[in-house]
Amino acid sequence: MNGLIDRENMVKRLLALPAEIYEAEKKVAAAYEIQKTAQSLLKDLEDSLLFAVKEDGTKFISGKNEAERSAQIREHTKSSRETLQSLEDAVITSRLELSKLQNELASMKAIARLLEVSA
Question: What stretch or stretches form a coiled coil here (predicted)?
């Protein structure tokens, strides 16, 4: 078929795209909510580390200044931060998929208008 789409398939695709876009929008929203929850949990973990005390009564985070304390917190939250980065990547990926579908719909509509004018 030369890679070209016939009118019948174009109509089918035009009818299917709104539902696909809706599903993609739901995925973006869900990914964003998961990301926000992970951010909140990471912040809670960081805060709890600041106040945590070892069995011997010394502070878990013992840095003498902000830079040292931040470095210690980063060390103890590496896994959580990596998970958060993965979730942020998932949001980006889902947004890209949504954008792709929206662009496809716009292109299909433009093609349909051109075909209508040329008919």
Answer: 84-118
Q: What pLDDT sits at residue 119?
A: 63
Domains defined along the chain, listed by start? 7-55+64-111 (1.10.287)
CA distances from 32 to 35, 90, 96, 100, 103 (A): 5, 9, 13, 18, 21
Q: What is residue 86's three-state secondary structure? A: helix
Sequence-ordered alpha helix ranges (H) in the chain: 7-51, 66-76, 78-118
Report the alpha-carbon distance of residue 91 to residue 33 in Å, rounded. Answer: 9
Q: What is the pTM of this model?
A: 0.82
If 0-12 CB within 10 Å is exposed, 13-18 middle and 19+ buried, where does residue 24 land?
Answer: buried
